[in-house]
């Protein structure tokens, strides 16, 4: 009763206080809290603080090893659930997770969904493979977990081909079961012309300031449902892929040219919430590496270093022209930025590196599927 009397007298004195006294809080109404509820809430906070303190007392080396094992052990998408669970334990666990889980450019792994649109590693290519389902016109991108050409893999992205009048569209999504226009998990799309020789790549999230937005009925239909409030709702053009016409039907493989908008000054922060889209972008020009004619085999050959085993017109390697002046330093025709090739009837390898992201590389490889009568 003593507590109640003090609370009542204090409330009475506050209500009788003249205007302007009390720091401007006289107009605020606070709900009554029973002493038993207040004591229980206080005990709960003390217990939580005790648990947090107990977990935070782990040795830094042991804590770092735990987070590293969690990050490396996740094989299914999205593995961010396990990493986020570790980061939610306490502040020290969050700091350890941010220090261990690095972007693909630094660690060569893909952990968070945002990693799919970050540049790949610089020193060595990231090995992936694509599986195709002809009956449903769907394509699935996996990250290789071993040195084998194909293994169980970790699912990254999926795409499905649709025919819209004279045009063909590929809807690219995080979810392999949600591959329709307007899907909640869509990340972008690819659109081709009537002949299938020119493709435009779109991103439904603003990759950099000043990105060109597509204002059309199809773009509005595609972005009508978005989970993230940070998504702009427009389809933003981020690249083009074109195949050169072969009017004379001369001998030789397809010849392709890519112009990809890559943000300059891409941050390498592990925490996606701290990343900001760069203010500028630069166009990365890529062309297919010219194969050589093999007299003994009577075919065109490229050195895929054992990553491609079946001859196909779809096989290609992309390099930057030698005279290219760009901020990434990839103007070397011997450095393969992206290579794609067939290993089985419906399985293909895809290896990419900086400055391309997994999403950009996957979209470029999708352009190679399908017959191109004007190029062959």
From TrEMBL:
Region annotation Disordered: residue ranges?
1-52, 263-287
Q: From which domain of life does this come?
A: Eukaryota
Q: Where is the composition biased (Polar residues)?
A: 1-15
Task: Give the matching InterPro entries.
Answer: F-box-like_dom_sf, Tubby-like_C, Tubby_C, Tubby_C_CS
Source gene?
LOC123182626
Give the family per the record.
Belongs to the TUB family.
Where does the record place Low complexity bias?
A: 278-287
- In this chain, composition skew of type Basic and acidic residues spans 39-52
**Start and end residues of each Tubby C-terminal domain:** 116-371
Q: Which organism is it from?
A: Triticum aestivum (Wheat)
The protein's name:
Tubby-like F-box protein
């Amino acid at each position: 009763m003593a507590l109640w009397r003090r609370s009542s007298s204090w409330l009475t004195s506050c209500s009788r206080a003249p205007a302007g006294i009390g720091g401007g809080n006289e107009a605020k109404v606070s709900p009554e809290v029973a002493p038993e509820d207040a004591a229980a809430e206080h005990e709960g906070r003390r217990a939580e603080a005790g648990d947090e303190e107990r977990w935070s007392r782990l040795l830094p080396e042991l804590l770092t090893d735990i987070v590293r094992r969690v990050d490396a052990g996740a094989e299914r998408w999205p593995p961010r659930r396990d990493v986020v669970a570790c980061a939610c334990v306490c502040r020290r666990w969050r700091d350890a997770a941010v220090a261990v889980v690095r972007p693909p450019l630094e660690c060569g792994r893909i952990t968070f969904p945002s990693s799919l649109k970050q540049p790949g590693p610089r020193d060595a290519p990231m090995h992936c493979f694509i599986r195709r389902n002809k009956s449903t016109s769907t394509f699935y991108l996996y990250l290789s977990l071993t040195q084998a050409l194909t293994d169980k893999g970790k699912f990254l992205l999926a795409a499905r081909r649709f025919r819209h009048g004279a045009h063909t569209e590929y809807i690219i999504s995080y979810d392999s079961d949600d591959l329709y226009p307007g899907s909640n998990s869509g990340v972008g799309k690819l659109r081709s012309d009537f002949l299938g020789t020119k493709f435009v790549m779109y991103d439904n999230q603003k990759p950099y300031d000043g990105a060109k937005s597509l204002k059309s009925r199809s773009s509005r239909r595609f972005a009508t449902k978005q989970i993230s409030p940070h998504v702009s709702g427009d389809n933003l053009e981020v690249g083009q892929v074109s195949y050169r016409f072969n009017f004379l039907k001369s001998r030789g493989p397809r010849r392709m040219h890519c112009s990809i908008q890559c943000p300059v000054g891409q941050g390498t922060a592990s925490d996606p919430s701290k990343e900001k889209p760069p203010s500028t972008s630069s166009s990365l020009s890529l062309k297919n590496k010219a194969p050589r004619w093999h007299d003994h085999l009577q075919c065109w050959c490229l050195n895929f270093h054992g990553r491609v085993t079946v001859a196909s017109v779809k096989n290609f390697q992309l390099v930057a022209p030698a005279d290219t002046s760009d901020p990434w330093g990839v103007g070397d025709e011997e450095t393969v930025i992206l290579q794609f090739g067939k290993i089985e009837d419906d399985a293909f390898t895809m290896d990419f590196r900086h400055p391309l992201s997994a999403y950009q590389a996957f979209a470029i490889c999708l352009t190679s599927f399908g017959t191109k009568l004007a190029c062959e």
